[in-house]
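Pair request: fold both.
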Amino acid sequence: MEKNRRMTRQKKIILELLRSTNTHPTAEWIYEKARERIPEISLGTVYRNLNLLKELGEIMELSFGGAYKCYDGIPVNHYHYRCRICHRVYDVDMPLVDQLSKLTETGDGHRIETHRLEFSGVCSACLAAGALDREDAG
């Protein structure tokens, strides 16, 4: 495990890419961007390093059902908004409601350590592009 803690060039670049964007990219997007700096990097290396960075608590992996995953360079719990039209994921700028975890503890012996909240709808870019109008017409 100590070997995995070492900050390799690949890990460093992947982490820099994630922390330099306010989007929540897929591994494929990260791979394409990383190839601009390390042309010989493989998609497998990107996935392996994303998993290691997640295990080390440096990034968050967001799963939205099925195989669709994206990654977040902010490793602390925060809320997200996902557009159902373009599927982009945005951070929601609001404080964590810690009381939610306490309210859901039922007294049956389990302990909630964290929670994840996701809002969904249609983002402003899709609304401005008339996505709902096309959806209503179709």
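--- second member of the pair ---
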Amino acid sequence: MFTDFEAAKAWIEHSKRFGDKLDLSRMQIAADMLDHPERTFKSVHVGGTNGKGSTANFIKNIMMEAGFKVGLYTSPYIVKFNERIMVNNQYIDNDDVITYANRLKTIWDDIYENHGDSVTFFELLTLMAFMYFRDQGVSYAIVEVGLGGTLDATNIIQPEVALITNISYDHMKQLGNTLESIALNKLGIVKQRSFLITSIENKALFPLFYEIVHKKDSRIKIIDFNQVQNQDVSVPTTFTYRGEHYEIGLVGHHQIKNACLAIEAIRTLRLKTKTSISEQNIKDGLLNTQWPGRFEIFDKRIILDGAHNIGAVRELIRTLDMVYPDKNIRCLFCMMHDKEHSRIISELDNIVEEFVFTEFPYPRCADAKILYAESNHQNKQYNDDAKEAFSNIRDTLKDDEILLVTGSLYFVSHIRQFLIR
């Protein structure tokens, strides 16, 4: 039995990342043993490569503005472990984590003894979220996909609407090396006779989306970004969509896309479930949304952004050009060794004034020297002490310079905690 939070957290975080069986059998068995908590609330399922967390937060805040009690399940965390699971902006507290961990340990033991398999890290978190949402009596849960879609632990829910933000290259080891294979996996969240809304823009993938949705006897809406006008990427970011003016609390052109997806999700829910959500609720929810580590600005010249794949980095570069067109960029960079770091470094080589590579104590962290060697920048260096490297740049920033911290959400979390302290 766990009696303190750190022990419960350690048990969850040190559980296996991937199970021996590549299916949802463990989740189905565990959910059955728990009397299916995922069936006790309505849900919205959010998949895609980038923008899942931002989109989920937009929807959560809109529904809160309308007076609903809303659960949110996202990953990874930036500030603290508990932020993966929240209800109405309140993180699950430490005592609840202990309680649910003890319940899940019993489930874990039973499945291991009777089925010869281990419930994984993400499955444990997902089950905890579903139990917590049930016990808190949420009306809706906004559930972010962890990896892919088809075999993701969250895919036991039957959502009111499924969302796919975009398709880009990431997690190729698990999802395949083509956009088609990645898309096919993410389309696994589409259920029979359901509704899919997506903000994909790659028209080469449209036939695949239509094919899968047709096979599932479902409906699809693809966001038409020709209806987005008057875009001003600053703080706040503003735009017009389908004749309505919006302001959002998150910065960037890509956040406009995420906001449009959230708007259409709410409009679909409003029609499908006769939910009472006003246009003003939508506007207030979008404006009040904050999301740590996503083009998060400190002191007007320090930017933390967890971009960790090629699609996210290109959007980051585009946003930097819009918000800081006349500033020189000094970049502090760290990435996980299993990501496409050479390709991303090549993109950033072209836009930064100084490139500093670093690392921090995390099992998947790439060696700073390896990252340094992959850069062709004329003004590059490495420092294996991330906090020291950050302080060195911050303390020498000139008026015409900004500090960009990027490459990984885990890394951004590490620096953010140091920065706030």
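Observation on the second member. The mean pLDDT is 93.
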